[in-house]
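Section 5.1 Outputs to date
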Amino acid sequence: MLAEIEPWFAHDYRTARGLFLKAAEQNGLSVQSIVHPLRGPEGDELATDAVRIGPHDADKLVVLTSGMHGVELYCGSMCQAALIASGYFSSLPDGMAVLLVHAINPWGSAHGRRVNENNVDPCRNFLDFTRPLPENADYPRLHPHLADADRPGEAGDSARAALSALRAEWGDARFNAAQFGGQYANPDGVFYGGQSAEWTNRTISGLLREHGGPARRVATLDYHSGIGPWGEMLGVVVHTGEGLARARRWYGDAVLAPNDPDQDDPGYYPVTGHSSDGYEAALPGVEVTAVVLEFGTYPLDRGSEALGQEHWLNSNNGNCDPAEARAIKAALARHFNPDDAAWRATVWDKSRHAIRQAIAGLVED
């Protein structure tokens, strides 16, 4: 199993993109590249690259996306390249195609950030911006404290105390929704959703309209990492109603449904502008079953600290000791991309299982 995937794993965007393009070239597949207007840290080209396998008039489409949260690119990129290289999709059911979209947020991937070039979380940006933006009335009380919350010393102590007091006042559910659910008023804040459709939003929405337009049924699997127990896969589904019921039929116990009105776990909170909602909006009249594949790494508090430190670094425009800046970036990368071959093998195995479930669901449900 390791021989199948290890040659396709990378630690940086340039290498990951090169491997994806290499796999496509070796298998005679054409690549559709949408070049980003900005460049990588070393001046290299940034792009979202897409490969389609199967008939262009297919009425069933599986979409595999990676890099929505830039620094999380690498396990998804590995799986996409290995799937192409192994000929995994050489015998698709009749009337089915697969679209593999590599590095939806190439700027974030190349620069080692979870967000994009405008500090926007792409998974909070899929809204109808002709309408009033959602209001997160609680976030402004959190905002002054978040940048320092994971710092040592007096500033960090003060910030943590203020946040703890707010959590005690509000309870976990309200606090988590305020911090993580999405906010549209503070461009330098966390989980900022932007003021207009960002490049990532426009690019993936355009690809979906182009390739999914002829389809009747579409299943999207969006690779993420960093949430959940080590090596486990969670299928995060923001659908409710029939969409959620369908996802549960297909993926079973892996489904985690934060918007399910019957769930009351304060650790799960509704979000605004989620990419899954955007995929549905891009394909009106098409049955879309959207799942975020979250592959667990280290404990969540470790990931929150790494994100907090990186947010502080960005808030200070990198104005700190260079060694500290490198350590902060390395900690963030480590949390989302463990340097562990056994973990990658587990991701590969569970990823293929989810793809088989998606294909079976599209054909049989």
